[in-house]
Design brief:
CATH class of the largest domain: Mainly Beta
Distance between the termini: 16 Å
Helix content: 10-25%
Shape: globular
Structural class: alpha+beta
Number of domains: 2
Radius of gyration: 16 Å
Number of helices: 4
Number of strands: 9
Strand content: 25-35%
Strand order of the largest sheet: 1-2-3-9-4-7
Largest sheet: 6 strands, antiparallel
Length: 179
């Protein structure tokens, strides 16, 4: 997928300069330029900031994943993996255009889903299938073991960190879809 091209097209269609986008996102103009030219890949947090600044959802950048059938077979799951990331997101829902987002998330030891805590509209519920996750939610931290779940308001800044020694596998539902 050509993430950089989509970002540049959306930015220019809104008559926003790289400098203006940098100001809105808190990212450097150099980083945005490199992302747009596909010289570097954005982190999930950076892509989130760009999508928000351009008044779109992250779904916009992955719209080629739209599927009309209601069943998602294990071998047919769409995988989202951003460049320079060791985290894999697998869509458990047919596409990213419905009212709920359902993801299988695989995070390698020591990795986290965002560099910084992020917040967005809605609510999330997660279940750890394998491994251990530390969920940072506002100023609080929760350690989740296999079988533990968590439900929270997504407007409070949050992130997940794999604190175990094996890949953490978890399932997340979010409303409204935020990816």
């Amino acid at each position: 997928m050509e993430l950089g091209k989509k970002i540049r097209e959306l930015r220019t269609s809104q008559n926003i300069t790289i400098e203006q986008l940098a100001e809105k996102t808190g990212l450097s103009t150099g980083l945005i330029s490199q992302i747009e030219r596909n010289k570097t890949g954005p982190s999930v947090a950076s892509l989130w900031k760009i999508a928000t600044a351009l008044n779109t959802s992250m779904n916009y950048f992955f719209e080629e994943y739209e599927k009309k059938e209601p069943v998602v077979r294990k071998r047919e799951r769409k995988k989202i993996r951003l460049p320079n990331s060791n985290i894999t997101y697998e869509l458990l829902c047919p596409d990213l255009t419905k009212k709920i987002e359902f993801l299988l998330v695989k995070i390698k030891p020591g990795e986290c889903n965002y560099d910084d805590q992020i917040s967005h509209e809605g609510e999330e519920c997660g279940l750890v299938l394998k491994g251990r996750l530390k969920v940072k939610w506002g100023s609080r931290e929760y350690i989740l073991e296999e079988g533990d779940s968590i439900y929270f308001d997504s407007t409070v800044p949050h992130r997940y960190v794999n604190i175990g020694d094996k890949t953490a596998i978890s399932v997340w539902a979010m409303v409204p879809p935020s990816f």
